[in-house]
Design brief:
By secondary structure, the protein is an alpha+beta fold. The chain folds into two domains: 2-152, START domain (Alpha-D-Glucose-1,6-Bisphosphate, Chain A, domain 4, 2-Layer Sandwich); 155-276, Nucleoside Triphosphate Pyrophosphohydrolase (Alpha-Beta Complex). 23% of the residues lie in helices and 37% in strands. The strands form two sheets. Strands 8, 9, 10, 11, 12, 13, 14 and 15 form an eight-stranded mixed β-sheet that branches. The chain has a seven-stranded antiparallel β-sheet with strand order 1-7-6-5-4-3-2, with helices on one face. A hairpin with a 2-residue loop joins β13 and β14 (228-239).
């Protein structure tokens, strides 16, 4: 068994680094940088979907390079596990080595985060051990570089001010426990490469079963920390009636009752501008 350890200090908050380490595209980009192909297979798979326990990470070789050595010599299949700290680990199910495991740990201090990658590698008889070990270390260093870039990207969470007949739609959180029972403007994260309007329309369709037209901004960005901002847009319903799938209740709130709702704190910061925009139903 060959132990592998690599560490890096990344100039980004811990929360941003954790999000980057869960991004499917961070791992597939790392493999592509090494000259192979990669894909993630699992529930709700997409180019930027977060990794989930049970996902399969597949690495396939490309055409043999001029040096005459193909990496990997044949396809790899690794099983993903996401632990209680929301960090992924990988276990080899099939490939040219006997065993490979990789786990991660992070520790943040202010705007800097230390990442430790621990791996175990058991080489099959006849495989070039120094080359395999060197490739594994190279992969970890490339991963750290790509995680650094991804963690520095600003994450946008979009919220929809769905306004109809002078009332705005509020949705009640059911999780996590510390937020359960609080109300928010429905929405969600913008995936890399996705527009704010596209993300909001997608999230409202998934969360509430409605098709909306997305309009102009409501208020300024609200800083959520960890390189994340909340950005609110007006929205008008084109089709469907709000039926919560991820919240446990919804309600229509008129301008006079806004202050009485038990809003999440970031949403509460939007109330002044929201009240001004509740005079009509068009987005």
């Amino acid at each position: 068994m060959t132990p592998l350890r690599a560490t890096a200090t990344i100039d980004a908050p811990e929360g941003a680094v954790r999000r980057a380490l869960l991004r499917s595209d961070v791992w597939t980009r790392t493999v592509r940088a090494l000259g192979a192909r990669a894909e993630v297979a699992g529930e709700r798979v997409g180019p930027w979907a977060p990794l989930r326990t049970g996902d399969l990470f597949r690495v396939r070789p490309v055409a043999e390079p001029r040096g005459g050595w193909l990496w990997p010599p044949r396809s790899l299949i690794l099983r993903v596990t996401v632990d209680g700290d929301r960090l992924p680990s990988f276990e080899l199910l099939a490939g040219p080595v006997q065993e490979f495991r990789l786990s991660l740990a992070v520790d943040g201090t202010g705007s800097h985060t230390r990442v430790v990658a621990d791996g175990r590698l058991r080489i099959s008889p006849g495989s070039p051990i120094p080359l395999q070990r060197r490739r594994a270390r190279q992969a970890l260093q490339l991963l750290f570089g790509i995680v650094t870039l991804a963690a520095r990207e600003q994450l946008v969470v979009v919220a929809g001010a769905v306004i109809e007949d002078g009332r705005v739609l509020a949705a009640r959180r059911s999780r996590p426990p510390e937020l359960a029972g609080k109300w928010e403007l429905p929405g969600g994260k913008v995936d890399p490469g996705e527009s704010d309007a596209g993300a909001l329309a997608r999230e409202l369709a998934e969360e509430l079963g409605i098709t909306v037209a997305v309009g102009g901004r409501v208020g300024a960005d609200v800083d959520l920390g960890d390189n994340t901002v909340l950005r609110c847009y007006r929205a008008g319903i084109i089709d469907g009636r709000p039926t919560p799938t991820e919240h446990d209740a919804v309600q229509w709130v008129d301008a006079g009752a806004l202050a009485a709702v038990d809003w999440l704190e970031p949403d509460r910061k939007l109330l002044v501008e929201l009240r001004r925009g509740m005079s009509g139903s068009r987005p």
